[in-house]
Every structure is written in structure tokens, then in C-alpha cells.
Amino acid sequence: MFSFLKRNPLFTQISCANLLSKIGDRLFYTAMLSTAAALPHSKIAVMIVSVSETLPILFSFFLGSLADQKRGKMDLLIKNTLLRALLYLGIGALFRYPQTLLLLILASCFNFGSDLAGNYSSSLIAPFTKNLIQSDEMTTAQGLLSMATQLMNVAATLIGAMLLSFFKKLTVANLNALLFAVVGLGFGLIRPQLKPVENQLQIHPQESVLATTKRNFQSLWNDKPVFNNLCQLALLNGLFGGLTPVFTLFIPQNKSLAFLSQPLKIALLSGLITVGMIVGNLLSTKIWVNRSIQQLNHISNLFVAFIGLSFLQNSLYGILVLSGILALLLGIVSPRFSASIINHYSTERLGGMMTTVNSLLVLIPPVTSVLFPILSNVSLTTAYLGFVGYSGLLFLLNWVISKLC
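C-alpha cells predicted for MFS transporter (405 residues):
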């Protein structure tokens, strides 16, 4: 891992700057949620915060296409990051006043703008990755990025919670603004070294963003093996959106690990999933290298059914172990899939393609986080059987798309 980073210093520098900005994405999230929960109309307030975090994903389809059409990507990265610093200074200014629903709405709008800018920055960076990394090392690069992102998300949430224990929310917002300013400075420092790489980037012909976005979707649809893998991975990622709420309802019905509180059991499940993902990212280039993405997805689909059967058997240990293994498999496959996209598509379209793919991969969890609780309202057994049915859906979808190839 360290030898790879030393061989690719520019990739390491631009990736580190981008990962720091991802800390900023999550750092203030706990503060926003705690503010929402303390308001009289807490359910509406929490929904507003959640929407401000989710909506940028939908706009990312268009932002990626827009980024592909832009020259001077490094200059845009710097301006974008400084804009995010200003937005969080605005949030800090808002939190000088008594916390009301109107204040939260305004802060959520600023947060929405910051997240949009963050997704735009990721699209601007994507073409650099292809030019900085050899194709045979792309899986290693994507594995390291995926692992680092997982760790950063966990670290940012913990750091945000710890800062709130010692500082006011406006101070945490200002610290977040300072972090974005530092990221902007980092992009500025590496701009001279990346200028020759930027000059090599081909720019997509000028056309409407809507037309470019439509063409990106058509490209994925026409490449049926890629589209099949994308659908499988999106749905497998989506499973975890429904797993946690159902697991929360399952815990009171189960007596295993009675010495652990309910929050600790939920944290244990989340921890095993995170560790499984990270270990999978590290092992992506080392194990099952001769297995195709589709074959590994089939194995993952089976584990979804096994998790459902573990719920039906009232086996807490089975759920924990199988969820960890499923996360491990996804951790192995995800970098390989990202690398295949980067290697397959040209640099002038890469920002749009990567943003489209990444957005599709994270769209399903919000859906399943609503769907499975609805099933649990019928009965817990219905929700448990839902996991088995979800596995069947994955196999059926794979068969249908394979027939279209």
C-alpha cells in the first residue's frame, strides 16, 4: 500500500485533499441532527436535515456532466472549496441566534449547497485519476480510496460528536469552514504540479447538460454486463439501508448477548459492516482475483437470503457474521467495479460517468430504509421474509438482464 502511494505522489496528494473535504461533509451532520431533534416539531426538522443530505445525490447526475465540459478544473476545485468555507461561515453565523425551525431550514439550505459543491468537486477530480494511475493499478487505487472514505466517514462522525461535547455548534461550523479553507489551500499548493496533467485532459464537446446526462445513462444501458453489475451492486448496497431498522426491531425479541444494551448491539452490527468493507477493500487485489464481478455478486446474493433465514431462526450471531461476510464481499467487488468504469470510459466523459454510477449506487439505501420498516408494520416475519425475497429479486434481475445481452 505505502509503495503504491510513494509511486503515485500526485494521486496521493489530490486524493488526500479530497478526503479531507469528505470529513467536512460529515463533521457537522451530528450537530444538524441534534438541533433538529431538540426542536418542537422534531420529526419535520429531522426530515428537513435528511432531505438536505439526500437531494444532492439526485443533482449529481447533472453536475458530473457539467464538470466534464469545464476547463481549468484545478481553479474550479479551489473556488469550489472556498465557497464551501463561506457557506459554513454562514451556518456558523446562523447558530449565533436562538435555534428555531426557520434557522434550521436556512442552515439546511447552506448544507445542501455545500454538499452540491462537494459532489461537483468529486466530478472534477475523476479525470485526473485516470491520467495519474496505470490501468493495471486502478483497482488498488480504488480500493484505497474506498477504504479511506469509510474510515473518514466514521472518524468525522466521532470527531463531530466529540467537538460538540466541548464547543458550541457555531464554533464547530467555523472549524468546518476552516477545514474547507485548508483543503482549498492544499489544492492551490498542488496546482502547479497537476497543470501538465490538466492540459492533457480532453474536454467534452459543448452540449446541453441534460443531453450529456441522458447519453451517460444510455451508455450504461447499452453495455449490459456493466449495467447488470451496477444494478446488482446498487441493490446489494441498498440491503444495508433496510437491515439496520429491522435489526433494531429484532433485538428485543432475541436474548443473545443479553449483557449488551440495544444501542451497543446496533453499533456492533454497524461496526462489523464497516470493518468488513474495509478489509474487503484491502483484499480486493489479493483474493479471488480470477473470479468475475458477476460471480462474486451471485455469492453475495446468496448471503442476503442467509441473513433473512437467520432472522427467521432468531439467530443474532448468524445475522452479525453473515452481514460482516456480505460487507467483505462488497468491499472486494466495489473497487474492481469502479476501476473497470474508469478504465473503460474516456477521460472527457469520466466525471459524468463516475458521478452517475456513484449516485445510482447510493440511491437504493434510502428506499430500503423506508420499505423494510413498512414490511415490519405488517409483521416482523414479513420483514424477515422480505430479505429472502430481496435475494430472489437480485437473481431474477440478473437473469433478465443477462437474457438481454
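The chain has two domains: 2-203, 215-404.
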